[in-house]
Write a structure and sequence with these properties.
The complex is a heterodimer of chains A (about 160) and B (about 120). Chain A has three helices and four strands; from the N terminus they run αβαβββα. Chain A is an alpha+beta fold and about 160 residues long. Chain A starts with a helix and ends with a helix. Helices cover about 60% and strands about 5% of the residues of chain B. Chain B has three helices and two strands; from the N terminus they run αβαβα. Chain B starts with 6 loop residues before the first helix and ends with a helix. The chains are: A alpha+beta (about 160), B mainly alpha (about 120). Chains A and B meet through α1, β1 and α3 of A and α1 and α3 of B.
Chain lengths: ~160, ~120
């Protein structure tokens, strides 16, 4: 196991959190969109997170690389004296973007071009308050992972100091 | 063990290895702070270190386990930001200590070599 693998774990979280923030931005931008290419009003989207093994370690194991310490559990035996990557050490990925199934908000606007026979317009079910809370959550998690990256970077920097 | 490789160096190398390992686990916990159903993992540092120091030939394969006593959120995730933040700092300092000790040990060996040159 090496410290560069740790960077990959944190980097995966940065990507996932960024995607979450992008989806929130798209929800807020489309809060009033009554038309979409699929027809009907825009539907609120949400990101599903799932944990995963770091891609590099997996690729290396699949390529048969017996490099010390990078084997995920179940791979070839690690070199003696080096810690092997544990099955528990996993990154994260935005597995899917799903649409909210909640019914659209019906507003009475008879003059609107998208109004139905009764004069109601279907608006996206986007709640700005909850979207903002989600955005803040994504931003804070992003920051936390940046801190983890700085800490790891400093540790790598220090190991290089041994050489001097 | 050779002339230029003291037992302390070997111990420190293992200490650093273990600290780096823990850093990975803490980073993984932080990365998965929003993953539904994820449970925080950790190693028993003291126990793993004494295990690693007892047998210098053994492979370092720490036992990771779920951290007991953490409050689980409604989505099944129990990662505590405070705990992980604290561990992040702690592990970093442990690593720094290990590196500083290793450097001083190397300097000592180098000093011994330099002294021999005078004759």
């Amino acid at each position: 196991m090496n410290l560069f693998g740790v960077l990959e774990v944190s980097a995966s979280a940065l990507g996932a959190e960024r995607m979450r923030a992008e989806v929130v931005a798209s929800n807020l931008a489309n809060a009033e969109s009554t038309r979409t290419p699929e027809g009907g009003p825009y539907r609120r989207r949400e990101v599903i997170f799932a944990s995963r093994k770091p891609a590099f370690a997996l690729a290396l194991a699949q390529a048969g690389g017996g490099a010390a310490g990078l084997n995920p559990a179940g791979g070839a035996a690690a070199m003696p004296g080096t810690a092997k990557l544990n099955a528990g050490s996993v990154g994260v990925q935005a597995r899917a973007v799903v649409e909210d199934t909640a019914p659209p908000l019906m507003r009475y606007e008879p003059g609107h071009p998208d109004a139905d026979a009764n004069g109601y317009v279907a608006y996206p079910n986007v709640n700005p308050a909850s979207e903002m809370a989600d955005l803040m959550g994504a931003s804070r998690s992003y920051e936390m992972n940046v801190s983890a990256i700085s800490a790891t970077k400093q540790m790598i920097q220090q190991s290089l100091e041994i050489l001097k | 063990m050779s002339l230029t490789e003291t037992p302390l160096m070997d111990s420190l190398a293992r200490f650093l290895d273990l600290a780096a390992y823990r850093q990975q686990i803490v980073s993984a916990n932080i990365a998965n702070i929003d993953t539904p159903g994820y449970h925080a993992l950790d190693i028993n540092f003291q126990q793993e270190l004494s295990k690693a120091l007892a047998d210098s030939q053994a492979e370092i394969a720490p036992e990771t386990r779920q951290v007991p006593g953490l409050v689980e959120r409604p989505d099944g995730n129990n990662v505590s930001l405070d705990r992980e933040g604290l561990l992040l700092g702690q592990t970093q300092l442990q690593f720094s200590t290990g590196v500083a000790l290793l450097r001083s040990e190397l300097r000592r060996v180098s000093m011994a070599i330099e002294e021999g040159k005078g004759q």
